[in-house]
Amino acid sequence: MTRRSASSGADALDWDGSSAGPGVTNVKPPGLVLPDPAAICVPRTVLADPEGNVFCLLEPKEIYADTGPIAAMDVSCADPRAMTPFWNAAMDWIVHEVTDDLARLCSAAGSVPSLEFVRVPDITVWTRVHLDLRPYFRDDQAAEVARPRTLGAMDADIGPSDVPRVVLTDPEGNPFCVLTPC
After folding, report:
1. Cβ proximity of 169 and 153 under 8 Å
2. Whole-prediction pTM value?
3. Which domains are seen in the chain, by residue range?
4. Which of 116, 136, 142, 164 is most buried (most C-beta within 10 Å)?
């Protein structure tokens, strides 16, 4: 990556490019109402990149020490406790914390961002982010798709893609993809 001046949030985090690349859409669905970022990102500093994508700067915590610049991937949900068993089994990650307002799962390696399910009352908005799960090397994609289905995942269609994938939704309807193994 080329180091750039910190003139924007993306520059400050040393992110190259735009989210408007091939296969990425920034289309705002009709009737979309974005939530108040402050309600989702407390106690965090809320910022937006040049395209208006909201992100949060977290307070320093030991659990984020080795994650790099992206400490956590937050997923808004109605019930973090209910989401935990599904995602724990679907990803085979370690549950680090579960409360009524937050569930945190981390890789056993501990060196990647955590996946955090954050309670957001009255979710009525479309999310611009979904997870892409890649099976481990030599794992079978069909088996990796079958596992979340046995946990309650449903098939979904989010449109065509050049990426070989199977699209599913979690128990709250959040889409995610299971890609082909590496």
Report:
1. yes
2. 0.65
3. 31-126 (3.30.720.120), 130-182 (3.10.180.10)
4. 116
Tokens of 40: 């989702």
Peptide bond into 35 cis (omega under 30): no
HSE at residue 87, side-chain half, CA atoms within 13 A, is: 33
**Separation of alpha carbons 132 and 107, rounded Å:** 15
Judged by phi (left if over 0) then psi (alpha if -120 to 50, else beta), residue 110 lies in left
| Residue 66 one-letter amino acid | D
In terms of Cα–Cα distance, which of 20, 23, 22 is closest to 158? 23
Q: Interior CA angle at 10 toward 59 and 182, to 5°?
A: 90
Say which residue the tokens 């669905």 belong to: 29
**130-181 pLDDT tens trace:** 788 888 777 888 888 998 999 999 998 877 788 888 999 998 888 888 988 7
